[in-house]
Structure of non-specific serine/threonine protein kinase:
Amino acid sequence: MNSLTLAERVAVTDKLDYLILKYLIDKRDKFEYIPKSTLLRDLNLGEKELQISLLRLAKNGAISKTKVRGEDSISITFTGLDIVSTKSLHSRKIVKSLGITIGEGKESRVLFGYDFNDNTIVVKYHRIGRRSYRKKIDNFHDRNWVSMTLENARREYEALQCIKNNMGYVPSPLGFSTNAVAMEYFEGVPLYRAELQRPDYVLDSILGTMRIAYKYCGGLTHGDMSQYNVLVNENEEIVVIDWPQANRNEVTLLKDISRILEFFEKQYSVERDLEEVLNYVKGYS
Ligand SMILES: Nc1ncnc2c1ncn2[C@@H]1O[C@H](COP(=O)(O)OP(=O)(O)O)[C@@H](O)[C@H]1O
Ligand SMILES: [Mg+2]
Protein backbone atom coordinates (compact mmCIF):
# COMPACT_ATOMS: atom_id res chain seq x y z
CA MET A 1 0.00 0.00 0.00
CA ASN A 2 3.04 2.26 -0.13
CA SER A 3 1.90 4.13 -3.22
CA LEU A 4 -1.23 5.48 -1.54
CA THR A 5 -1.55 9.23 -1.25
CA LEU A 6 -2.07 10.76 2.14
CA ALA A 7 -5.74 11.45 1.32
CA GLU A 8 -6.20 7.77 0.45
CA ARG A 9 -4.55 6.72 3.67
CA VAL A 10 -6.96 8.95 5.60
CA ALA A 11 -9.88 7.37 3.73
CA VAL A 12 -8.94 3.82 4.74
CA THR A 13 -8.38 4.73 8.39
CA ASP A 14 -11.11 3.44 10.68
CA LYS A 15 -12.57 5.03 13.82
CA LEU A 16 -10.79 2.51 16.05
CA ASP A 17 -7.54 3.15 14.15
CA TYR A 18 -7.80 6.85 15.12
CA LEU A 19 -8.43 5.96 18.71
CA ILE A 20 -5.22 3.93 18.72
CA LEU A 21 -3.19 6.61 16.91
CA LYS A 22 -4.39 9.31 19.31
CA TYR A 23 -3.59 7.09 22.26
CA LEU A 24 -0.05 6.55 20.93
CA ILE A 25 0.35 10.34 20.60
CA ASP A 26 -0.98 10.97 24.13
CA LYS A 27 1.43 8.48 25.65
CA ARG A 28 4.44 9.71 23.69
CA ASP A 29 6.42 10.97 26.67
CA LYS A 30 5.96 7.75 28.59
CA PHE A 31 6.96 5.19 25.97
CA GLU A 32 8.26 5.36 22.42
CA TYR A 33 6.94 1.83 21.85
CA ILE A 34 3.81 0.81 23.73
CA PRO A 35 3.39 -2.87 24.60
CA LYS A 36 0.34 -4.45 23.03
CA SER A 37 -0.90 -5.63 26.43
CA THR A 38 -0.93 -2.01 27.65
CA LEU A 39 -2.95 -0.96 24.60
CA LEU A 40 -5.44 -3.76 25.17
CA ARG A 41 -5.87 -2.83 28.81
CA ASP A 42 -6.00 0.96 28.49
CA LEU A 43 -8.31 1.05 25.49
CA ASN A 44 -10.47 -1.76 26.78
CA LEU A 45 -10.46 -3.61 23.47
CA GLY A 46 -10.91 -7.20 22.43
CA GLU A 47 -7.78 -8.97 21.23
CA LYS A 48 -9.29 -9.67 17.81
CA GLU A 49 -10.46 -6.11 17.07
CA LEU A 50 -7.10 -4.70 18.20
CA GLN A 51 -5.32 -7.17 15.93
CA ILE A 52 -7.39 -6.17 12.89
CA SER A 53 -6.88 -2.50 13.54
CA LEU A 54 -3.13 -2.86 14.05
CA LEU A 55 -2.81 -4.83 10.83
CA ARG A 56 -4.63 -2.12 8.91
CA LEU A 57 -2.52 0.63 10.52
CA ALA A 58 0.70 -1.22 9.76
CA LYS A 59 -0.30 -1.82 6.12
CA ASN A 60 -1.13 1.87 5.89
CA GLY A 61 2.31 2.85 7.19
CA ALA A 62 0.79 4.56 10.25
CA ILE A 63 2.55 2.51 12.91
CA SER A 64 5.74 0.55 13.32
CA LYS A 65 6.20 -2.54 15.44
CA THR A 66 9.08 -3.91 17.41
CA LYS A 67 9.65 -6.38 20.22
CA VAL A 68 10.33 -4.87 23.63
CA ARG A 69 11.36 -7.46 26.20
CA GLY A 70 9.86 -10.13 23.96
CA GLU A 71 6.50 -8.40 23.59
CA ASP A 72 5.02 -6.88 20.41
CA SER A 73 5.11 -3.11 20.90
CA ILE A 74 3.78 -0.28 18.77
CA SER A 75 4.90 3.23 17.84
CA ILE A 76 3.28 5.88 15.64
CA THR A 77 5.13 6.92 12.45
CA PHE A 78 5.29 10.24 10.59
CA THR A 79 2.58 8.92 8.27
CA GLY A 80 0.46 8.17 11.35
CA LEU A 81 0.85 11.78 12.51
CA ASP A 82 0.02 13.02 8.98
CA ILE A 83 -3.17 10.95 8.96
CA VAL A 84 -4.35 12.23 12.35
CA SER A 85 -3.66 15.88 11.51
CA THR A 86 -5.24 15.67 8.04
CA LYS A 87 -8.38 14.08 9.44
CA SER A 88 -8.69 16.79 12.07
CA LEU A 89 -8.09 19.67 9.62
CA HIS A 90 -10.71 18.13 7.37
CA SER A 91 -13.36 17.63 10.04
CA ARG A 92 -12.77 21.19 11.28
CA LYS A 93 -13.44 22.37 7.71
CA ILE A 94 -9.99 23.91 7.29
CA VAL A 95 -8.70 21.59 4.55
CA LYS A 96 -11.13 20.09 2.04
CA SER A 97 -8.62 18.11 0.00
CA LEU A 98 -4.93 17.66 -0.67
CA GLY A 99 -2.97 18.09 -3.89
CA ILE A 100 0.59 17.43 -5.00
CA THR A 101 3.76 17.93 -2.98
CA ILE A 102 5.43 21.35 -3.35
CA GLY A 103 8.54 20.60 -1.39
CA GLU A 104 10.13 18.04 0.84
CA GLY A 105 12.80 19.17 3.29
CA LYS A 106 14.75 17.58 6.12
CA GLU A 107 12.11 18.39 8.68
CA SER A 108 8.91 18.87 6.71
CA ARG A 109 6.82 18.02 3.72
CA VAL A 110 4.74 20.76 2.08
CA LEU A 111 1.62 19.96 0.05
CA PHE A 112 -0.88 21.95 -1.97
CA GLY A 113 -4.39 21.73 -0.64
CA TYR A 114 -7.84 23.26 -1.09
CA ASP A 115 -10.07 24.88 1.48
CA PHE A 116 -13.87 24.47 1.52
CA ASN A 117 -14.25 27.43 -0.88
CA ASP A 118 -11.84 25.70 -3.30
CA ASN A 119 -9.06 28.22 -2.74
CA THR A 120 -5.56 26.83 -3.12
CA ILE A 121 -3.85 26.59 0.24
CA VAL A 122 -0.68 25.00 1.62
CA VAL A 123 -0.40 22.29 4.27
CA LYS A 124 2.97 21.83 5.92
CA TYR A 125 3.57 18.53 7.71
CA HIS A 126 6.37 18.66 10.25
CA ARG A 127 8.57 15.64 10.78
CA ILE A 128 11.55 15.77 13.09
CA GLY A 129 13.38 12.53 12.57
CA ARG A 130 15.49 10.66 15.03
CA ARG A 131 18.62 12.05 13.41
CA SER A 132 17.83 15.73 13.95
CA TYR A 133 16.34 14.76 17.29
CA ARG A 134 19.75 13.47 18.42
CA LYS A 135 21.37 16.73 17.40
CA LYS A 136 18.91 18.71 19.46
CA ILE A 137 18.70 16.28 22.33
CA ASP A 138 20.70 18.56 24.64
CA ASN A 139 17.98 21.17 24.53
CA PHE A 140 15.09 18.74 24.71
CA HIS A 141 16.36 15.84 26.79
CA ASP A 142 12.96 15.01 28.19
CA ARG A 143 11.17 15.14 24.85
CA ASN A 144 10.91 12.47 22.17
CA TRP A 145 10.68 13.00 18.41
CA VAL A 146 6.87 13.02 18.38
CA SER A 147 6.76 15.80 20.98
CA MET A 148 9.41 17.79 19.16
CA THR A 149 7.55 17.44 15.88
CA LEU A 150 4.30 18.61 17.51
CA GLU A 151 6.09 21.52 19.19
CA ASN A 152 7.50 22.63 15.84
CA ALA A 153 4.05 22.74 14.26
CA ARG A 154 2.65 24.69 17.19
CA ARG A 155 5.58 27.13 17.21
CA GLU A 156 5.24 27.77 13.50
CA TYR A 157 1.48 28.30 13.76
CA GLU A 158 1.77 30.66 16.75
CA ALA A 159 4.52 32.70 15.09
CA LEU A 160 2.46 33.07 11.89
CA GLN A 161 -0.59 34.04 13.91
CA CYS A 162 1.11 36.74 15.97
CA ILE A 163 3.02 38.26 13.07
CA LYS A 164 0.00 38.22 10.76
CA ASN A 165 -2.20 39.80 13.45
CA ASN A 166 0.32 42.62 13.63
CA MET A 167 0.39 43.13 9.85
CA GLY A 168 3.72 41.44 9.15
CA TYR A 169 4.34 39.74 5.82
CA VAL A 170 3.75 36.04 6.44
CA PRO A 171 1.20 33.60 4.95
CA SER A 172 -2.10 33.79 6.88
CA PRO A 173 -2.33 30.77 9.14
CA LEU A 174 -5.59 28.87 8.63
CA GLY A 175 -5.29 26.24 11.33
CA PHE A 176 -3.05 23.62 12.84
CA SER A 177 -3.39 20.14 14.22
CA THR A 178 -0.86 17.63 15.57
CA ASN A 179 2.09 18.01 13.16
CA ALA A 180 0.42 20.03 10.40
CA VAL A 181 0.00 23.75 9.74
CA ALA A 182 -2.46 24.94 7.09
CA MET A 183 -1.75 28.36 5.62
CA GLU A 184 -2.49 30.67 2.74
CA TYR A 185 -0.75 29.89 -0.55
CA PHE A 186 1.56 32.64 -1.77
CA GLU A 187 2.36 32.63 -5.44
CA GLY A 188 6.00 33.55 -5.83
CA VAL A 189 9.57 32.31 -6.01
CA PRO A 190 12.17 32.03 -3.28
CA LEU A 191 14.27 35.17 -2.92
CA TYR A 192 17.46 33.46 -4.14
CA ARG A 193 15.78 32.82 -7.52
CA ALA A 194 14.22 36.27 -7.93
CA GLU A 195 15.71 39.08 -9.99
CA LEU A 196 14.72 42.09 -7.98
CA GLN A 197 14.15 45.53 -9.49
CA ARG A 198 13.78 47.13 -6.04
CA PRO A 199 16.09 45.28 -3.66
CA ASP A 200 16.00 48.07 -1.02
CA TYR A 201 12.23 47.90 -0.93
CA VAL A 202 12.23 44.10 -0.56
CA LEU A 203 14.86 44.23 2.18
CA ASP A 204 12.77 46.84 4.03
CA SER A 205 9.74 44.53 3.82
CA ILE A 206 11.76 41.69 5.36
CA LEU A 207 13.24 43.87 8.11
CA GLY A 208 9.82 45.39 8.81
CA THR A 209 8.43 41.88 9.35
CA MET A 210 11.35 41.01 11.63
CA ARG A 211 10.65 44.19 13.61
CA ILE A 212 6.99 43.24 14.02
CA ALA A 213 7.99 39.76 15.23
CA TYR A 214 10.41 41.28 17.75
CA LYS A 215 8.29 44.20 18.96
CA TYR A 216 4.86 42.64 19.07
CA CYS A 217 5.55 38.93 19.56
CA GLY A 218 7.72 39.13 22.66
CA GLY A 219 11.19 39.44 21.12
CA LEU A 220 10.62 36.70 18.55
CA THR A 221 13.15 36.04 15.80
CA HIS A 222 12.88 33.64 12.86
CA GLY A 223 15.83 31.36 13.64
CA ASP A 224 16.55 30.38 10.03
CA MET A 225 16.22 33.65 8.13
CA SER A 226 17.69 33.38 4.65
CA GLN A 227 17.08 33.86 0.93
CA TYR A 228 15.46 30.38 0.96
CA ASN A 229 12.73 31.31 3.43
CA VAL A 230 11.43 34.46 1.75
CA LEU A 231 9.02 34.20 -1.19
CA VAL A 232 8.70 37.11 -3.64
CA ASN A 233 5.96 37.71 -6.22
CA GLU A 234 5.88 39.73 -9.46
CA ASN A 235 5.09 42.96 -7.64
CA GLU A 236 8.02 42.34 -5.30
CA GLU A 237 5.71 41.75 -2.37
CA ILE A 238 7.06 39.17 0.04
CA VAL A 239 6.19 36.64 2.72
CA VAL A 240 8.64 35.18 5.21
CA ILE A 241 7.94 31.44 5.58
CA ASP A 242 9.28 28.52 7.66
CA TRP A 243 8.96 29.60 11.31
CA PRO A 244 9.16 26.35 13.36
CA GLN A 245 12.47 27.26 14.92
CA ALA A 246 11.39 30.79 15.92
CA ASN A 247 12.82 31.72 19.31
CA ARG A 248 13.72 34.58 21.61
CA ASN A 249 17.49 34.31 21.57
CA GLU A 250 19.48 37.51 20.90
CA VAL A 251 22.37 35.60 19.31
CA THR A 252 19.92 34.05 16.84
CA LEU A 253 18.48 37.49 16.10
CA LEU A 254 21.93 38.80 15.21
CA LYS A 255 22.60 35.77 12.97
CA ASP A 256 19.23 36.17 11.22
CA ILE A 257 19.89 39.85 10.49
CA SER A 258 23.50 39.29 9.43
CA ARG A 259 22.56 36.50 7.00
CA ILE A 260 19.90 38.48 5.21
CA LEU A 261 22.04 41.66 5.05
CA GLU A 262 24.92 39.63 3.65
CA PHE A 263 22.70 38.23 0.89
CA PHE A 264 21.53 41.71 -0.16
CA GLU A 265 25.04 43.07 -0.04
CA LYS A 266 26.55 40.27 -2.17
CA GLN A 267 23.67 39.95 -4.60
CA TYR A 268 22.50 43.55 -4.96
CA SER A 269 25.30 45.66 -3.39
CA VAL A 270 22.83 47.01 -0.83
CA GLU A 271 24.83 48.38 2.11
CA ARG A 272 23.26 48.63 5.56
CA ASP A 273 24.81 49.26 8.93
CA LEU A 274 24.35 46.16 11.12
CA GLU A 275 24.06 48.13 14.36
CA GLU A 276 21.43 50.47 12.90
CA VAL A 277 19.40 47.58 11.51
CA LEU A 278 19.60 45.75 14.82
CA ASN A 279 18.25 48.83 16.61
CA TYR A 280 15.49 49.21 14.06
CA VAL A 281 14.41 45.55 14.35
CA LYS A 282 14.43 45.80 18.15
CA GLY A 283 12.20 48.85 17.91
CA TYR A 284 14.72 51.29 19.40
CA SER A 285 14.70 53.55 16.38
N1 LIG B 1 2.66 29.52 2.13
C1 LIG B 1 3.34 29.05 1.10
N2 LIG B 1 3.01 29.41 -0.17
C2 LIG B 1 3.68 28.92 -1.23
N3 LIG B 1 4.71 28.06 -1.16
C3 LIG B 1 5.09 27.64 0.07
C4 LIG B 1 4.44 28.12 1.25
N4 LIG B 1 5.03 27.55 2.31
C5 LIG B 1 6.01 26.76 1.83
N5 LIG B 1 6.07 26.81 0.47
C6 LIG B 1 6.98 26.07 -0.42
O1 LIG B 1 7.50 24.93 0.26
C7 LIG B 1 8.92 25.03 0.40
C8 LIG B 1 9.33 24.52 1.77
O2 LIG B 1 8.70 25.26 2.78
P1 LIG B 1 9.42 25.68 4.12
O3 LIG B 1 8.38 26.23 5.04
O4 LIG B 1 10.59 26.57 3.82
O5 LIG B 1 9.90 24.28 4.73
P2 LIG B 1 11.33 23.53 4.78
O6 LIG B 1 12.40 24.50 4.40
O7 LIG B 1 11.41 23.07 6.19
O8 LIG B 1 11.19 22.41 3.81
C9 LIG B 1 9.22 26.51 0.18
O9 LIG B 1 10.51 26.71 -0.32
C10 LIG B 1 8.17 26.93 -0.81
O10 LIG B 1 8.54 26.56 -2.11
MG1 LIG C 1 12.63 26.50 4.31
